[in-house]
Amino acid sequence: MGLFDFLKNKSEPIEKKMEEKSVGEKSKNVQYLNQIQKEVHQYLKPLGFKKRGRTFNRQTENGVWQLINFQSGQFPVGENYVIPGIRESLYGKFTVNMGVIIKELYEIQMKGKQKAFYQDYDCQIRTRLSHLISEDDYWWDITNESEIISDQIIEGLNEKGISWFDMFETREKICVNWGNIKGSSKTSKLDVALIIFQTDKKKGGRLIQEYYNNIELHKGHKEYVKELANGLGLKLTENEVG
Protein backbone atom coordinates (compact mmCIF):
# COMPACT_ATOMS: atom_id res chain seq x y z
CA MET A 1 0.00 0.00 0.00
CA GLY A 2 1.45 3.37 -1.05
CA LEU A 3 1.57 6.47 1.10
CA PHE A 4 -1.23 8.23 -0.74
CA ASP A 5 -3.46 5.16 -0.52
CA PHE A 6 -2.91 5.13 3.24
CA LEU A 7 -3.82 8.81 3.57
CA LYS A 8 -6.92 8.29 1.46
CA ASN A 9 -8.07 5.40 3.62
CA LYS A 10 -7.42 7.42 6.78
CA SER A 11 -9.42 10.39 5.50
CA GLU A 12 -12.58 8.44 4.76
CA PRO A 13 -13.65 7.97 8.41
CA ILE A 14 -12.90 11.66 9.11
CA GLU A 15 -15.05 12.78 6.18
CA LYS A 16 -17.79 10.42 7.28
CA LYS A 17 -17.69 11.82 10.81
CA MET A 18 -17.91 15.38 9.46
CA GLU A 19 -20.91 14.40 7.36
CA GLU A 20 -22.56 12.70 10.33
CA LYS A 21 -21.93 15.81 12.45
CA SER A 22 -23.54 18.01 9.78
CA VAL A 23 -26.60 15.74 9.63
CA GLY A 24 -26.82 15.77 13.40
CA GLU A 25 -26.67 19.58 13.50
CA LYS A 26 -29.39 19.85 10.88
CA SER A 27 -31.60 17.47 12.85
CA LYS A 28 -31.13 19.51 16.03
CA ASN A 29 -31.84 22.76 14.19
CA VAL A 30 -35.08 21.31 12.84
CA GLN A 31 -36.16 20.17 16.32
CA TYR A 32 -35.32 23.52 17.93
CA LEU A 33 -37.05 25.53 15.20
CA ASN A 34 -40.10 23.25 15.40
CA GLN A 35 -40.39 24.04 19.11
CA ILE A 36 -39.97 27.80 18.58
CA GLN A 37 -42.58 27.74 15.84
CA LYS A 38 -44.95 25.66 17.97
CA GLU A 39 -44.85 28.25 20.75
CA VAL A 40 -45.42 31.14 18.33
CA HIS A 41 -48.33 29.17 16.82
CA GLN A 42 -50.08 29.26 20.20
CA TYR A 43 -50.11 33.04 19.87
CA LEU A 44 -51.13 33.10 16.19
CA LYS A 45 -53.89 30.47 16.26
CA PRO A 46 -56.47 32.62 18.11
CA LEU A 47 -55.76 35.41 15.59
CA GLY A 48 -57.00 33.17 12.78
CA PHE A 49 -53.70 31.92 11.36
CA LYS A 50 -53.46 28.35 10.06
CA LYS A 51 -50.12 26.55 9.75
CA ARG A 52 -48.64 24.50 6.96
CA GLY A 53 -44.94 23.64 7.21
CA ARG A 54 -43.03 26.81 8.10
CA THR A 55 -45.80 29.12 6.93
CA PHE A 56 -48.96 30.62 8.47
CA ASN A 57 -51.93 32.00 6.49
CA ARG A 58 -55.10 33.86 7.43
CA GLN A 59 -57.78 35.45 5.25
CA THR A 60 -58.91 38.91 6.36
CA GLU A 61 -61.21 39.74 3.44
CA ASN A 62 -62.41 37.55 0.60
CA GLY A 63 -59.28 37.05 -1.50
CA VAL A 64 -56.94 38.97 0.83
CA TRP A 65 -54.48 36.75 2.68
CA GLN A 66 -51.84 37.60 5.30
CA LEU A 67 -48.78 35.42 5.73
CA ILE A 68 -46.01 34.72 8.24
CA ASN A 69 -43.09 32.51 7.27
CA PHE A 70 -40.13 31.10 9.22
CA GLN A 71 -37.12 31.03 6.87
CA SER A 72 -34.01 29.05 7.81
CA GLY A 73 -30.55 30.05 6.64
CA GLN A 74 -29.13 27.79 3.95
CA PHE A 75 -26.19 25.49 4.53
CA PRO A 76 -23.08 27.20 3.07
CA VAL A 77 -21.97 25.25 0.01
CA GLY A 78 -18.30 25.43 -0.95
CA GLU A 79 -15.21 26.75 0.78
CA ASN A 80 -15.62 30.22 -0.74
CA TYR A 81 -19.29 30.69 0.17
CA VAL A 82 -18.58 33.22 2.93
CA ILE A 83 -17.34 36.62 1.72
CA PRO A 84 -16.85 38.82 4.82
CA GLY A 85 -18.93 41.97 4.63
CA ILE A 86 -20.72 40.78 1.50
CA ARG A 87 -22.10 37.30 2.08
CA GLU A 88 -22.15 35.72 5.52
CA SER A 89 -23.30 32.26 6.50
CA LEU A 90 -26.83 32.26 7.94
CA TYR A 91 -26.78 28.53 8.61
CA GLY A 92 -28.15 27.81 12.09
CA LYS A 93 -30.23 30.98 12.02
CA PHE A 94 -33.74 31.93 10.94
CA THR A 95 -35.78 35.03 10.19
CA VAL A 96 -39.50 35.83 10.11
CA ASN A 97 -41.02 36.97 6.81
CA MET A 98 -44.38 38.71 6.59
CA GLY A 99 -46.54 39.42 3.59
CA VAL A 100 -49.94 40.04 2.01
CA ILE A 101 -51.47 38.42 -1.05
CA ILE A 102 -54.33 39.93 -3.07
CA LYS A 103 -55.96 37.16 -5.08
CA GLU A 104 -56.62 39.11 -8.29
CA LEU A 105 -53.07 40.49 -8.37
CA TYR A 106 -51.69 36.98 -7.98
CA GLU A 107 -53.86 35.80 -10.88
CA ILE A 108 -52.91 38.76 -13.11
CA GLN A 109 -49.22 39.17 -12.31
CA MET A 110 -48.26 35.57 -11.64
CA LYS A 111 -50.76 34.08 -14.10
CA GLY A 112 -51.77 31.67 -11.37
CA LYS A 113 -55.05 30.46 -9.96
CA GLN A 114 -56.16 31.06 -6.39
CA LYS A 115 -54.40 28.73 -3.97
CA ALA A 116 -55.68 27.03 -0.86
CA PHE A 117 -52.47 28.09 0.90
CA TYR A 118 -49.96 30.76 -0.10
CA GLN A 119 -46.19 30.99 0.34
CA ASP A 120 -43.84 33.92 0.91
CA TYR A 121 -42.87 34.17 -2.77
CA ASP A 122 -46.54 34.70 -3.71
CA CYS A 123 -46.85 37.99 -1.80
CA GLN A 124 -47.24 41.39 -3.46
CA ILE A 125 -46.59 43.20 -0.16
CA ARG A 126 -43.61 41.97 1.86
CA THR A 127 -41.46 42.81 4.86
CA ARG A 128 -39.60 41.11 7.69
CA LEU A 129 -40.51 41.29 11.35
CA SER A 130 -37.00 42.50 12.16
CA HIS A 131 -37.41 45.42 9.72
CA LEU A 132 -40.51 46.52 11.60
CA ILE A 133 -38.85 46.15 15.00
CA SER A 134 -35.49 47.80 14.34
CA GLU A 135 -35.15 48.34 10.55
CA ASP A 136 -32.34 45.73 10.61
CA ASP A 137 -32.25 42.43 8.75
CA TYR A 138 -31.96 40.36 11.91
CA TRP A 139 -31.69 36.55 12.00
CA TRP A 140 -32.29 34.68 15.26
CA ASP A 141 -29.94 31.87 16.29
CA ILE A 142 -31.65 28.48 16.30
CA THR A 143 -31.02 27.16 19.82
CA ASN A 144 -32.82 25.15 22.48
CA GLU A 145 -33.81 28.38 24.26
CA SER A 146 -37.17 28.21 22.50
CA GLU A 147 -39.14 30.07 25.16
CA ILE A 148 -36.82 33.11 25.12
CA ILE A 149 -36.75 33.26 21.30
CA SER A 150 -40.49 32.69 20.83
CA ASP A 151 -41.22 35.39 23.43
CA GLN A 152 -39.11 37.85 21.41
CA ILE A 153 -40.98 37.00 18.22
CA ILE A 154 -44.38 37.20 19.89
CA GLU A 155 -43.47 40.53 21.46
CA GLY A 156 -42.38 41.85 18.06
CA LEU A 157 -45.59 40.65 16.40
CA ASN A 158 -47.72 42.07 19.20
CA GLU A 159 -46.03 45.49 19.18
CA LYS A 160 -45.25 45.94 15.46
CA GLY A 161 -46.30 43.03 13.27
CA ILE A 162 -50.04 42.93 13.85
CA SER A 163 -50.41 46.71 13.47
CA TRP A 164 -48.53 46.40 10.15
CA PHE A 165 -51.00 43.72 9.07
CA ASP A 166 -53.88 45.99 10.13
CA MET A 167 -52.90 48.44 7.39
CA PHE A 168 -53.44 45.73 4.78
CA GLU A 169 -56.48 43.80 6.00
CA THR A 170 -58.85 45.05 3.27
CA ARG A 171 -58.47 46.25 -0.30
CA GLU A 172 -59.63 49.70 0.78
CA LYS A 173 -56.83 49.95 3.35
CA ILE A 174 -54.29 48.54 0.91
CA CYS A 175 -55.18 51.23 -1.64
CA VAL A 176 -54.75 53.94 1.01
CA ASN A 177 -51.52 52.66 2.57
CA TRP A 178 -49.56 50.74 -0.06
CA GLY A 179 -47.31 53.26 -1.75
CA ASN A 180 -47.71 55.83 1.02
CA ILE A 181 -45.83 54.16 3.86
CA LYS A 182 -42.15 53.53 4.45
CA GLY A 183 -41.04 50.29 2.83
CA SER A 184 -43.47 50.43 -0.10
CA SER A 185 -42.07 48.90 -3.27
CA LYS A 186 -41.46 50.83 -6.49
CA THR A 187 -44.36 48.95 -8.07
CA SER A 188 -46.86 49.60 -5.26
CA LYS A 189 -48.74 52.21 -7.35
CA LEU A 190 -49.26 49.60 -10.05
CA ASP A 191 -50.62 47.14 -7.49
CA VAL A 192 -53.12 49.74 -6.28
CA ALA A 193 -54.14 50.63 -9.83
CA LEU A 194 -54.82 46.96 -10.61
CA ILE A 195 -56.95 46.56 -7.48
CA ILE A 196 -59.01 49.64 -8.38
CA PHE A 197 -59.35 48.43 -11.99
CA GLN A 198 -61.34 45.42 -10.77
CA THR A 199 -64.25 47.61 -9.65
CA ASP A 200 -63.67 50.89 -11.54
CA LYS A 201 -62.15 50.26 -14.96
CA LYS A 202 -62.08 53.93 -15.96
CA LYS A 203 -60.21 55.09 -12.86
CA GLY A 204 -58.03 51.98 -12.72
CA GLY A 205 -57.13 52.33 -16.40
CA ARG A 206 -56.16 55.97 -15.89
CA LEU A 207 -53.93 55.04 -12.94
CA ILE A 208 -52.24 52.26 -14.94
CA GLN A 209 -51.59 54.75 -17.77
CA GLU A 210 -50.14 57.28 -15.29
CA TYR A 211 -47.90 54.60 -13.81
CA TYR A 212 -46.74 53.60 -17.31
CA ASN A 213 -45.94 57.22 -18.20
CA ASN A 214 -43.80 57.67 -15.09
CA ILE A 215 -41.82 54.44 -15.18
CA GLU A 216 -38.21 55.08 -14.29
CA LEU A 217 -37.20 51.42 -14.19
CA HIS A 218 -35.52 49.56 -17.03
CA LYS A 219 -37.15 49.14 -20.43
CA GLY A 220 -38.09 45.55 -19.66
CA HIS A 221 -40.46 46.69 -16.90
CA LYS A 222 -42.21 49.09 -19.25
CA GLU A 223 -42.76 46.26 -21.72
CA TYR A 224 -44.06 44.08 -18.88
CA VAL A 225 -46.65 46.72 -17.87
CA LYS A 226 -47.73 47.17 -21.49
CA GLU A 227 -48.21 43.42 -21.91
CA LEU A 228 -50.07 43.22 -18.61
CA ALA A 229 -52.39 46.06 -19.71
CA ASN A 230 -53.02 44.34 -23.05
CA GLY A 231 -54.16 41.27 -21.14
CA LEU A 232 -56.72 43.47 -19.35
CA GLY A 233 -57.98 44.95 -22.62
CA LEU A 234 -56.16 48.27 -22.13
CA LYS A 235 -54.17 49.97 -24.86
CA LEU A 236 -51.54 52.20 -23.29
CA THR A 237 -50.23 55.27 -25.12
CA GLU A 238 -46.81 56.89 -24.87
CA ASN A 239 -46.41 59.99 -22.68
CA GLU A 240 -50.10 60.56 -22.41
CA VAL A 241 -52.48 60.13 -19.52
CA GLY A 242 -55.57 58.30 -20.68
Characterization of the model:
With 242 residues, this protein is an alpha+beta fold. The chain folds into 2 domains: 3-166, no CATH class; 186-231, no CATH class. 49% of the residues lie in helices and 14% in strands. It contains 8 helices and 6 strands; from the N terminus they run αββββαβαβααααα. It has helices spanning 3-44, 103-109, 129-134, 146-166, 171-177, 188-197, 201-213, 219-231, and strands at residues 50-52, 55-61, 64-72, 93-102, 125-128, 140-141. Strands 1, 2, 3, 4, 5 and 6 form a 6-stranded antiparallel beta sheet that branches. It starts with a helix and ends in an 11-residue tail after the last helix.
The span between the termini is: 83 Å
List low-confidence stretches.
1-12, 14-21
Number of domains: 2
Give a short account of the largest sheet. 6 strands, antiparallel
Roughly how much helix do the residues carry, as a percent range?
A: 40-55%
* Quaternary form: single chain
The H/E string reads: HEEEEHEHEHHHHH
Instruction: Give the averaged pLDDT, no decimals.
Output: 87
Number of separate helices: 8
| Alpha-beta content class | alpha+beta
Assess the beta-strand content as a share of residues: 5-15%
Query: How many β-strand stretches?
Result: 6
What global shape is seen?
A: elongated
